[in-house]
Amino acid sequence: MIVTTANQPMAKADPAAYKMRGLDYLWFCAYQFAFTVLWGAIGQFIIPSLNERLLPAEGLRLFGLTVADNKLSALGWITFPGLIIAAFAQPMFGAISDGWRSKVGKRVPFVFIGTTLTLISVLGLTLSILLGWWWLLFFYGLTQLFSNIAFGPYHGLLPDRVLAEDRGKASGALGAAQMSGQIGSAIYMGISLSRNDLAGASLGVIIIVALGGLVNILLLREQPTDQLPTSPRISFGQRLTSIVSINAKRYPDFVWLLVARLFSLMGFTTITTYALYYIQDVIKLKNYNFFGLILPDATAGYTIILVIVISFSFISAIISGFLTDRYGRKPLIALSGVFGILGALALVFFRDFTLLTILSTFTGLFFGMFTAVDWAMVTDLIPRSQAGKYMGVSNLATAGAQALSPVFGTVIASVLNPNLNSVATYSAIMVGAAIYYLIGILLLTKVNEKKVEDEIDGAFRAALAWLSMLFRKLLRYCKIAALVIQ
Predict the structure, then answer these.
(1) For the residues of 8-48, what is the DSSP string, one character each?
(2) Which pLDDT tens digit goes with each residue over 142-156?
(3) What pairs with residue 4 in β-bridges?
(4) Which residues lie below 8 Å from residue 472, measured CB to CB, with a gap of 6+?
(5) Euclidean distance between the first and final Cα of the chain, in Å?
(6) What's the pTM value of the predicted model, to 2 decimals?
(7) Which of 59, 303, 414, 463 is deepest in the core (most CB within 10 A)?
(8) Distance between CA 343 and CA 126 in Å, rounded?
(9) Which helix (H) or strand (E) holds 66?
(10) Share in percent of the chain as helix, strand, coil (round to 5)
C-alpha cells in the first residue's frame, strides 16, 4: 500500500444509496454470513486439523533446511503467505470494482466470479489430505486469492448502498451475520470433525458459500455502470500507483483507524488461532463433564467456547449497531478493547475449563461490539467514489492481523518449546494478545470522528479502466480456452 498526500479534485458521489428496509438487510448480509462460515471453517478447524495430520514427523524441510519442527511453527508457515496474498488481493479487486462497467453493476460481477473460483479451491483444499502438507499450503493461498476477488468488492456495497444515517444499523447487521456464521460454522465443524468427516464438512461449506453468493447476486440489485465517463490517458506507473495508494493528508483519521484496527484484531486472532491448541496442551481436556454433557476431546471443548464467544458477539453486535448511530463510534470501540483485554488475561491466570467458558464472554463482547462499530466508522472516513479500494485497504488490517499473530506465536514457541513448558508458551502468547488490545485502544485516541467529503481524480479513474480492460481480456481468454477444450 502506498500512502499519498496530494490534494485531488472533487467529484460527485455515487447516487446509488437508498433507505434499506428489513429484507434489504437480509440480502445484503447473506454473503457476509457465507464468507464467515467459509473462513470460520477453514481458519479455525480445517487448517489446524489438517496441519497437525499432515505435518511430517521429521518436520518441514525446505532446500535441505528444517523450517518448522512443531505444529505451531507449521501453522504460521501456512497462514502467513496466504494472508499476504489476501492483503493485496482485497484492495486490488475492490479498486477494480470501483470503476467496473457493467449493466448489472460494479460489485456483483466480482461476487459471482470470486465465489465460483472459491468453490473450486475449497475442493482442492479438502483433497490436500490425500496430497500432503505442501498442497495444503498451495490451496490455502488459492482460496485466499479467489475469495477476496469477491469479498473486496462486496464490502464496497456498504458505502455504496446505505445512507449515512443507517450505517451503524447496517454495520450491526453485518456483525450479526458474521457472528451467526461463526456459530453455524463452529457447531457444524465441531460435529463433522468429531465424526472425522472432513469431506462432508467441506461439502456443506461449499453449499453455504454458493447459496450466499446467489442470494446476494440475484436479490441485491445494483444500478448499471456501463455508462461511466471515458478515462484520460496516463502512464503505466501512474496507473499502478493510483490503484494501491490512499490520500493520507486528506484522510489521516482513516490511516490511524487502520493501524488501531490492526492491533485490536491481532489480539482477537491470537486467541482464536491458538485456542484449540491451548485446550489440548494446557487444559488437556478429555472426557470432561460440562453440566452433564461429556466433552470427549479438545475439539468438543473448543466448539463449546466458540459458540459462547460468538453468541455474545451476536448480541453485542446488534445492540452496538443501534448505539453507535446515537452515541458515536470511539467510546464503543474503546470499551470493546477493554473487554478484549479481560478475555485474554483470563487465559493467562485460569486453567479450569468451566470458568474459562464463562470468562470467554468478554472476548465475545469485544468482537461483536468492535465489528459492528468499526465498519460504521471506516465507512464514515472514506470517499464513497473509491469505496471498494478503501474498504479493501481497511481489510488489510484484518488480513495483517491474521498473518502476524501466528508469526508472534511461532517465535514464542521456538524460544520456549525446547524447555517443554507449554504453560509458559501459551501464557506469553495470551499476554501478547492483551498488549495488542491495549495498543489498539491507545491508537484510537488519534482518530477524529467525522464524515468525509468525496473525491476521485482522473488518474485513479484511468487506472480502474485499465485494470478493468485487463480483467475483461482475461475472462475472454478463459472462455476461448474452455471452448477449445470442449
Answers:
(1) ----PPPTT-B---HHHHHHHHHHHHHHHHHHHHIIIIIHH
(2) 999 999 898 878 877
(3) 247
(4) none
(5) 41
(6) 0.63
(7) 463
(8) 33
(9) strand 65-68
(10) 75, 5, 20
